Amino acid sequence: MNAPRIVWLRRDLRLADQPAFCSAAAQGPVIPVYVLDDARAGERQLGGAARWWLHGSLKAFGREVERHGLRLILRRGDCVKQILDLVTETGASGVDAIRHYEPWWREAEEELGRQTDLQLHDGNYLAPPGLVTTGTGSPFKIYTPFARALLRLLPLRDPLPVPAITAPEAWPGSDSLVSWDLRPGNPDWAAGFRDAWEPGEEAAHAQLDDFVERADAYEEERNRPSVDGTSRLSPHLQWGEISPTQVWHALDGQRGTGADTFRGEVIWRDYAQNVIHQFPRYPESSYRDVFERFGWRDPQKSESAAADLRAWQRGRTGYPIVDAGMRQLWTTGWMHNRVRMIAASFLIKHLLIDWRHGERWFWDTLVDADYANNGVNWQWVSGSGVDSNMFPRIMAPLSQSEKFDAAAYIREWVPELAGLEDAEIHDPADSRRRNGYPVKRIDHKAARERALSAYRAAKG
Ligand SMILES: Cc1cc2nc3c(=O)[nH]c(=O)nc-3n(C[C@H](O)[C@H](O)[C@H](O)COP(=O)(O)OP(=O)(O)OC[C@H]3O[C@@H](n4cnc5c(N)ncnc54)[C@H](O)[C@@H]3O)c2cc1C
């Protein structure tokens, strides 16, 4: 029998359209491995919500590979060492993996590739980051020309079927998933997660099928948090339970602005990774210098800034749309995109708190927390990033809430206000704030003036 191949899994927990599996299966028996390596990612180790998702995803994936006669091997510790130990233990001829672009994964791939036969494959993006370039061969910084150029190339290929896979003669030892404690025990904060989500490849495809039926309405509904108008595929895509190529393919033949707008959003995911490919530490500091000398209110130095940050995190700012979003996030690990923009803008511009505090909070609380998408979107909202400067465009949360008809959404997530009519729920008078719902932490007009004057001061 041929020597086995290790498939090293990370955010690519699927069997279909999985080029690393296809490559390994063509060379020998397959040993799928996931290594939990918290130290490698340093400060970027998985947040609590992501760990909750990972547990479900590994469990589902373990069941899926068993149907193909395989076992999912779980190891904990330094990923390079663990994989090399497994190569020795099993006599594997080498390792196949899908390429990942976060800086700590790039380092690990280089290290591993120096010590064993590591074959890396592209598969988690519509096109490998770095492939799409301007006429002069440089990478794009701005979304629109990037999207236009990428669209001209798509689709690059059809999704790959699950290959015929053989099992090795013997299996190496594995940790038990439960011993990793990825899910909370006591207190169990994840009841809302269980109601909202089912991780895994099968659930991802069910979600995609459901969305394809309603893709026509996407253009109309995607900005209305009160309705289920978006695909809710983000954690499935983030964990690689489904590939963007499969998503693209499922929409094949769908014409109309709904499907087109949706395709544009999926391209945003590629765009974000394209930015990280150029600037690997992008989520760690402002791209534009002016924001590095900005007069942020620092929660580490000012008690009132710390109290504002806490109020934002807990959904107690006194702005119903912001609070509804932050509570949806806390309860389910996900927030509607329109509300992510409003809540992010509120933290940065109304509370004048550095976007990195928000980015970190999202990192810890989102089931779809993604190094690229999160960092790129936070810098986009703050105006500190590679694209156009949005800082002086300050979103008014109350009119956004009215415009996008968020009354039912607020009733769901801020039950203290559930008895109010649509007309007053977006901006209730202080006397109508019931059941301990707080007054606004800062008046909108005053916040706007403070933000603009801080911006002028930083520009000098
Ligand atoms: C401040 C902020 C932080 C964000 N952090 C993340 C994050 O950590 N992880 C994450 O996946 N998305 C993030 N987003 C982008 C976006 O909010 C989510 O992808 C979207 O809400 C997921 O819901 P959906 O799957 O129903 O999206 P849909 O509207 O159905 O879109 C389909 C897919 O396209 C991709 N997508 C959509 N919008 C964007 C976008 N603006 N940028 C990049 N990809 C996009 C996602 O993979 C999404 O699943 C963030 C947005 C903001 C404003």
From TrEMBL:
Key word ATP-binding present: no
Names of the cofactor(s): (6R)-5,10-methylene-5,6,7,8-tetrahydrofolate; FAD
Residue stretches making up the Photolyase/cryptochrome alpha/beta domain: 3-126
Lyase is among the record's keywords: yes
Pfam families to which the protein is assigned, alphabetical: DNA_photolyase, FAD_binding_7
Domain of life from the UniProt record: Bacteria
SUPFAM superfamilies: Cryptochrome/photolyase FAD-binding domain, Cryptochrome/photolyase, N-terminal domain
Molecular function per GO: deoxyribodipyrimidine photo-lyase activity
EC number from the UniProt entry: 4.1.99.3
Key words, A-Z: Chromophore, FAD, Flavoprotein, Lyase
Matching PANTHER family: CRYPTOCHROME (PTHR11455), CRYPTOCHROME CIRCADIAN CLOCK 5 ISOFORM X1 (PTHR11455:SF9)
Family: Belongs to the DNA photolyase family.
Name of the protein in question: Deoxyribodipyrimidine photo-lyase
